[in-house]
C-alpha cells in the first residue's frame, strides 16, 4: 500500500493542500520522533498524554504498568489515535494573523491488542528502545521475567493515517510586502548535548559507541 485510503476519519479538510496520505512520508515523520500524543476516553472525559513509542512496519508499540489507565482504556475501546509532531520553524510575517509555523505532523488511527506472549513483548520493547536510540538494547542488561510480567505492552495496527506538512516561507498579503517590517523564518531543531555519566561506575567508564553515535548525529 502506497497511500492510506481517505475517509471521514482521516481526511484533512483545513489546509488540505498540505495533506499527505503517503505511507512512506508518514513513516518518515514517525521514525524521526520518539514521543507521540495518545488520545483516549476516561469516565466520559477526553484526555491526551505524551508517550514514548516504537514503530515496526504498520504497527506502533506502547508500554506501561499493568494498571496503566490509558493503556487499559485503549484496550477496552479496541481502537486509538496517536499524533506525532515536529516543529521546524517559526514563520514571522508582517501581520499577526499571517504568523505561522513550519511543521511535520502525522495522525494515526488503529486497532489495539494486548501482547501476552513473552517473545512478542520482548520484540515490542526492543522496538521502543531502538526508536529512542539505535543500539541501546544491546548495551543494557536483559529484562527478567518478573519485569516482563509487570509490563503491559499494547500493539496498535495502523489502519489509516494522514499527515500535514508546512515547509514554505511567509505568506503575507500582497500589499504588505513593501512594509518596513522584518519577516522571515526562525528555523528550530531538537539537539543532543554531550552525554553526562550517571553517578558511580559509569563515571569511570568510556561512553558507549552507540551513545556517542547518537550525540554526533543529533548535536
UniProtKB/TrEMBL annotation:
It comes from the Bacteria. This is Pyridoxamine 5'-phosphate oxidase family protein. It comes from Flagellimonas algicola. It holds the Pfam family Pyridox_ox_2.
